[in-house]
Design a protein that fits this description.
The complex is a heterodimer of chains A (about 110) and B (about 130). Helix content of chain A is about 90%, strand content about 0%. Chain A has helices spanning about 5-30, 35-45, 45-75, 80-105. Chain B is mainly α. Chain B has four helices and no strands. Chain B has helices spanning about 20-45, 55-60, 65-90, 100-125. The radius of gyration of chain B is 19 Å and the shape is elongated. The termini of chain B are far apart. Classes of the chains: A mainly alpha (about 110), B mainly alpha (about 130).
């Protein structure tokens, strides 16, 4: 299996996983966004919500890392700049969810 | 020579139609969504600072702008989910002909607004 095929399969798996996770995330956020500190913390630290939100972050950053790199592919002419932007975004897509997930478990 | 080749998707060349409108909107909404997800991540990290710093954020979120952002996000997430479903249907070989493609495109546009309203109503009243 070549690299492009693997990338496409990962993209489709993350896309399928994201459909229910995005709907759950946005509905849940609508229910808590204007609540007080303790309600918001309770929401993010309850075990099912923490698991679902962590899964959402992993799949979302995985999905967007692949799709945003395609956007770079289409719009950035300079090869060096394109590679730099893609690698920087991949790094960003690893660091942000990891720190966020660790923060959720620290909030407990 | 290669460096001077035009890059896709040639927005300034093609005549606008529902397929191109949805394609470019999908990309723009995707970028908006990842920016929003990053802000949500920073919001979660910010919760670690404690309750004393939360007041200002809470005041903003309870304002008209806070509600506007959440309504906007409900739409952008809804649009992305519905258009992604359309892409998945294409992947299994459904909806390639022009007529079906236009119909599913129209369903995506109208459906994204309906789904955003449903999400907001469920989030505010039933959870």
């Amino acid at each position: 299996m070549n690299h492009a095929t693997k990338k496409w399969i990962v993209l489709k798996i993350s896309s399928i996983a994201l459909i229910p996770l995005m709907l759950w995330t946005i509905t849940s956020l609508v229910s808590v966004y204007d609540q007080g500190y303790s309600s918001v913390v309770n929401f993010f630290t309850s075990v099912p919500n923490a698991c679902l939100f962590s899964s959402f972050l992993i799949f979302a950053y995985l999905f967007f890392a692949i799709t945003i790199s395609e956007i770079f592919e289409d719009y950035i002419h300079n090869e060096k700049l394109k590679n730099l932007a893609t690698r920087a975004f991949y790094l960003f897509a690893i660091i942000v969810p990891v720190i966020t997930i660790l923060s959720i478990y620290k909030l407990n | 020579m290669y460096e001077k080749n035009p890059l896709s998707p040639h927005l300034q060349i093609y005549k606008w139609q529902i397929s191109s409108l949805l394609s470019i909107t999908h990309r723009i909404v995707g970028v908006v969504n990842i920016a929003a997800i990053t802000l949500i991540s920073f919001f979660v990290i910010f919760l670690m600072c404690g309750e004393q710093y939360y007041g200002m954020v809470n005041t903003f979120l309870q304002s008209f702008f806070g509600k506007f952002i959440m309504v906007g996000l409900s739409w952008s997430f809804s649009f992305h989910v519905l258009n992604e479903l359309r892409h998945l249907l294409w992947d299994i070989g459904f909806g390639y002909d022009l007529k079906t493609s236009r119909i599913t495109g129209a369903i995506t546009i109208v459906g994204s607004f309906v789904l955003a309203i449903v999400i907001f109503l469920i989030g505010k009243n039933f959870i």
